Amino acid sequence: MSGSDNAPDVVVNCSPTLTITKTVSPLGPFTFISPTDTQLVTYTVSIANNGSAAATGLSVTDTLTTPGGTTFSAFKEGAFPAS
Q1: Residue 56: which of 2, 16, 5, 23 has the closest Cα?
Q2: Which of 12, 22, 47, 78 has the greatest number of C-beta atoms within 10 Å?
């Protein structure tokens, strides 16, 4: 109890609750006819905070393995405020 109104103190615990999802498009398997064939593959990493508090100071790392002669071509970073 606090104050003069004899009302009990209320403690609210707030915490972030993060969900990370990774998708690939198009889905495999990939077939290449010759060494000069190319096929663009897009990986999308999405992060959602469904918690009751902001999540700050976070870093997400996703190591891209490059099997069979694949090469990395571009990276697009996005940061969007919570809605």
Answers
A1: 16
A2: 47
pLDDT on residue 83: 44
How many Å separate Cα 54 from the centre of its chain?
A: 15
Q: Encoding tokens for residue 46? A: 């999405």
Q: Which of 14, 21, 18, 78 is nearest to 48 (CA)?
A: 18
Among 39, 71, 74, 44, residue whose Cα is nearest residue 60: 44
3-state percent breakdown (helix, strand, coil) of the chain, nearest 5: 5, 20, 75
Q: 56 has which bridge partners?
A: none
Q: Where are the beta strands (DSSP E) in the chain?
A: 18-25, 42-49
Give me 33's structure tokens: 């006819």
Please give the residue that has the higher pLDDT: either 77 or 57: 57
pTM tops 0.85, yes or no: no
